[in-house]
Write a structure and sequence with these properties.
The complex is a heterodimer of chains A (719) and B (86).
Chain A (H helix, E strand, L loop, with lengths): L21 H6 L14 E7 L5 E7 L1 H4 L4 E6 L6 E2 L5 E7 L2 H10 L1 E6 L6 H5 L12 E3 L3 E3 L2 H6 L3 E9 L2 E2 L7 E8 L2 E6 L4 H11 L7 E4 L14 H13 L5 E4 L2 H7 L2 E2 L2 E9 L5 E11 L19 E8 L14 H19 L3 H7 L13 H15 L1 H4 L10 E12 L8 E6 L5 E4 L9 H13 L6 E4 L16 H24 L12 E4 L2 E4 L2 E5 H5 L7 E6 L9 E12 L5 E10 L7 H20 L30 E6 L3 H4 L14 H13 L10 H10 L4
Helix pairs in contact in A: 6-7, 9-10, 9-18, 13-14, 16-18
Chain B lengths: L28 E3 H5 L17 E3 L30
Antiparallel strand pairs in B: 1-2
Classes of the chains: A alpha+beta (719), B little secondary structure (86).
Chain lengths: 719, 86
């Protein structure tokens, strides 16, 4: 019988436990997909477009094909085809060594008809702009209208009008995108893929090669980050498989290099918003009118939620996707939410400043059942989380109203609220096998993108069997295992922990039934229990678990567990505070402290949960302070596709990060909810508000770089 | 504090799976949400924001074999030469 709740009292769950593969990862012993080099591996290197927009007139691969070590040349964009951005794929060379493949790529002769481009939003939206797609560069979405915005604004005691913007930021996964594909025989493929979806990757390799899905095995023992950008086989994966077939089944490895990662590995769309919003003296929002747009490059997907978090009526919002000649977006950790959050929270802070009220008052005055559809009323959660966070950041002691500070070095505090869904998919499975030697093995075709699901599954099994997580074989990252969750939308742990728990409970009960008759005195199965690595009979230790396991006979017990309601849920709230110091002469922002208050239901492993929050906050502060894809309007090329000019935080940029897991009993009872996305959403918004609080001027353009800070001060006549 | 809702899992609106389907989509249409939200529910596209990126299994790009954009709204049109219904 499937469980509908987690145990009240736990030995391992809801406590700290280090990840099982932590030492292997930290010591370099862990073998990532990009480390794999099966015997006979050929190295694939991609020729990509140097132009923002061009038509291929001709392509000559003859010289490349004759170069040393070259085994195959595969043309992706042949004569007549368009390339739509700097970095768009044209051809792949596979050779015995990576160096040989790179040399051969340089020998491919391509004649381009260079076309006019629009590489920035401004270029794309200009009159007579070069067309990125035939139907036009700007596509308006459906307008949102609720109530009577103008009438609402007329009732306000204060109204602000402002424009906010945040640029495109690229995915910077530590391990690049790619896979190694090998045709094992004429009907089977094995691939070692850096993916957050082994089953999706297997499915796409199978379909693109006209094989049954069960004939494809995708392996992802560990992987170096995906953040939403590594779903499916990708062009590089299907091309590797195609070349492997062409060369008689030799493995072909295609992984992007760092430049290609920036150009073609995906990005978070930009967002620009013109906002007019008003409120009464008590901070209640009376109306809002917003016009927004953003670009996902040569693809759609720039939408983001607005209004965000707060509940009010009388608003209208229009959004447009703008197409530019730039690499296309991919889902990035909480798609749309960081943009919506920083625009909403900036507007609210500016409104609070104009009203002359504490920013926290405005937040608290506008809570209610959210507008994003999961119908979770987070009001009480937010009220409590705001108070907790305010205490941890020292709000009552240190907050000073915007514009009240003097001097060159100023300190400011900022706040932002966020939300996320993060529920479990009800169709996933985990198998639990108890072998006669006492080995317990879990299997599922999910993968660990860093959230620690391998460890969490082992903790669940260890809890049920009275063992340690290190006693459990927690096997994931293989597409041939029972169906597991693709890791997106913070759904992995809430999807996988229920079937894992059910499989373990059922396997344990089966174990008791099987061994009871073979025990001295033939106790009833219900008299048996497991604790501290021992079999207990009526509460007394009888023998070790391993000795007990021998009594099941020669054949293992194997159970496949399914999802059941009650063990997981969705819908979380979070509040973040930032404490910054800003030098108004240099524009340099220094982070002093970030406080992250977050709920996510029952936390199974507090250590990996905290790691997710730390990582989310660090990702968020990169968004707030450093990251920006810079496009050259003249050439249409990305100017900073490397790790020197594409700025990220270094160790000294990371402030004190204080995490508060908000988990009162009612929250724990909700069951498991994902944590991957939520903690990255509010950080950039809180930082932006803290900077504005410090310097007395809204910095309307993210990131909070010295030039953006100084420009804001200059525009306000403050320097 | 009040108990939050325990309603069925819905995708975070704005991702694939959060859109109304007008007709049979092309069998080669793919998105992240199709792999993540597998409970078969059809979530209304109720919040007017869409952050979904689609790709085509034939090209593995955001443009199909006909060089037109890949998206749910148009990858269900029989007049696209590459269209193959599910």
């Amino acid at each position: 019988m499937a469980a509908n709740s987690w145990p009240e009292s736990t030995r391992l769950l809801n406590k700290d436990y280090p990840r099982l593969d932590g030492l292997a990862k930290a010591s370099g012993r862990a073998k990532y997909p990009s480390d794999e080099r099966p015997e006979g591996t050929l190295f694939g290197v991609i020729l990509y477009s140097p132009h923002a927009h061009a038509r291929i007139k001709s392509i000559d691969t003859a010289a490349a094909e004759k170069m040393p070590g070259v085994k195959a040349v595969e043309v992706i964009a042949g004569p007549g085809k368009l390339v739509r951005y700097h970095g768009d794929d044209i051809a792949v060379v596979a050779a015995e060594t990576e160096e040989q493949a790179r040399d051969a790529v340089r020998a491919i002769q391509v004649e381009y008809e260079v076309l006019p481009h629009a590489a920035t939003e401004a270029q794309a939206m200009a009159e007579n702009a070069a067309k990125v797609i035939p139907s036009g560069n700007v596509r308006k979405g459906r307008a949102q209208v609720d109530g009577k915005p103008e009438e609402g604004l007329a009732k306000a005691d204060a109204v602000i009008e402002a424009t906010y913007s945040v640029p495109v930021v690229t995915h910077v996964c530590l391990e690049p995108h790619g896979l190694t594909a090998r045709w094992d025989d004429k009907d089977h493929i094995t691939a070692w893929a850096s993916t957050q979806a082994v089953t999706a990757t297997a499915s796409e390799l199978a379909e693109s090669n006209e094989l049954p899905i069960s004939n494809v095995t995708v392996l992802t023992e560990v992987m170096g980050g995906g953040f939403g950008s590594k779903f499916g086989a990708d062009l590089w994966g299907t091309t590797a498989a195609r070349i492997s077939k062409k060369v008689g089944g030799r493995p072909v490895k295609i992984f992007l290099d760092r430049i290609q990662e920036h150009l073609a590995g995906g990005n978070r769309p930009s967002a620009m918003a013109k906002v007019k919003i008003g409120a009464t003296k008590d901070g209640k929002i009376t109306g809002m009118i917003a016009e927004t747009f953003g670009t996902g490059g040569v693809a759609r997907g720039s939408g983001f939620p607005l209004p965000y978090v707060y509940k009010f009526t009388n608003f209208s919002r229009e959004h447009a996707d703008v197409f530019v000649n730039g690499g296309n977006s991919r889902a990035m950790r909480a798609p749309g939410h960081p943009q919506g959050c920083l625009i909403m929270e900036s507007a609210l802070d500016d409104l609070a400043a104009k009203l002359g009220v504490d920013p926290l008052v405005v937040r608290k005055a506008n809570l209610g059942k959210d507008l994003l559809g999961d119908q979770t009323d987070r009001t009480q959660m937010y009220l409590e989380q705001i108070d907790i966070g305010a205490e941890l950041i020292g709000w009552s002691k240190n907050f000073q109203p915007r514009g009240s500070q003097k001097g060159i070095v100023r300190r400011g505090l900022g706040v932002a609220l966020h939300q996320w869904g993060g529920g479990g998919a009800p169709d996933k499975q985990v198998s639990c096998t108890v072998f006669p030697d006492g080995t317990i093995e879990l299997k599922s075709a999910t993968q660990d993108i860093g959230t620690g699901i391998r460890t969490v599954m082992a903790m669940i099994a260890a809890e049920v069997f009275g063992l340690q997580p290190t006693d459990i074989k927690s096997n994931i990252g293989n597409s041939t295992f029972p169906p597991g969750q693709s890791s997106g939308g913070s759904t992995t742990t809430p999807s996988m922990s229920p079937p894992c728990y059910n499989a373990c409970l059922e396997a344990r009960d089966e174990f008791f039934k099987k061994i009871a008759p073979a025990l001295p005195g033939a106790p009833k199965p219900e008299d048996l229990s497991l604790a501290d690595g021992k079999l207990m009979v009526k509460g007394e230790a009888a023998m070790s678990f391993k000795d007990a396991a021998r009594k099941i006979g020669m054949n293992p017990i194997s159970v496949t567990g399914k999802f059941s309601q009650g063990l997981s849920s969705n819908g979380v709230a979070g509040v973040q505070f930032a404490d910054v110091t800003v030098d108004i002469e240099t524009g340099v922002v220094k982070l002093n402290k970030i406080v992250a208050v977050q709920d996510s239901g029952l936390i199974l492993d507090k250590l990996t949960w905290n790691s997710q929050v730390y990582g989310g906050v660090i990702g968020g502060l990169n968004y707030g302070l450093f990251e920006e894809r810079v496009m050259d309007p003249v050439s249409g090329r990305m100017l900073n596709p490397d790790m020197e000019l594409y700025q990220l935080a270094g160790a000294s940029d990371i402030p004190e990060i204080v995490i508060h897991a908000y988990e009162p009993a009612a929250i724990k009872k909700r069951g498991v909810i994902g944590i991957g996305e939520p903690p990255t959403i509010g950080t950039a918004a809180a930082i932006g508000n803290a900077v504005s609080n410090a310097i007395g001027v809204r910095v309307t353009n993210w990131p909070m770089t010295p030039i953006n800070v100084l420009n804001a001060l200059a525009q306000a006549g403050k320097v | 504090m009040s108990e939050p809702s325990q309603e069925p899992v819905a995708p975070e609106s704005g991702e694939a799976g959060a859109e109304a389907t007008a007709g049979p989509v092309c069998r080669h249409l793919r998105s992240k949400g199709m792999y993540v939200y597998t409970d078969g529910m059809d979530y209304g596209f109720e919040h007017n924001y869409d952050s979904t990126l689609y790709w085509c299994l034939k090209t593995m790009k955001a443009f199909g074999p006909d060089d037109d954009m890949v998206e749910k709204e148009s990858c269900c049109r029989p007049d696209r030469p590459c269209y193959q219904p599910l």
